Amino acid sequence: MGGMAVPPRTSADQRFSDPRAEQLATMIEPTVKAHGLCVEQVALTTSGPRTVLEVSVDFAEGTDTVDLDTIAAISEALSVVLDQAEQNDDAAPLAALDTYDLEVTSPGATRPLTEPRHFRRNIGRLLEIQRTAQDPSAADAALTARLIEVDQEGIVVTELIPAPKKGMKPKVGPEIHISFASITRARVQVEFSHKD
Q: I need a surface site. Which of 18, 106, 110, 131 has the fewest CB within 10 A?
């Protein structure tokens, strides 16, 4: 055999979903560390045509939560690093994909919003909302919407309707009121401005 036997991967780093994620993590970690954080998890998940590179970051210790501006800054820095790496094969797993989305999250900053006060703290931000619907076919559709206001009963949002083509601006729908009772899950979406 000549020492080529592969030991069972019990000692493998649990933070990474597969070897591709592990390879990408080595490129991602320096950027995350530069922002004073550590990489919690890296995963490449494909659902239908979309492949998402999920990077979860957090403080190494302490109870602070990572703020969304930091996450946005990391997203922006990472997209530059990954774009460059694709040019020179360091990011072979990504270069093999037609397209992928980078999602940087932190257990604190992007933990689901469950209390009215969580919503109040995030007025003006973009949320991803899943809600129970009277119409079962709509129950699972996640809504991306900007939080306008919060009242006793629920929240007022304007839906962001994705652009049909890349490079086009998304449309903004009318204000709608969503009751707390109908929200099954809500979390803040991280945005960062893409400079062309």
A: 18
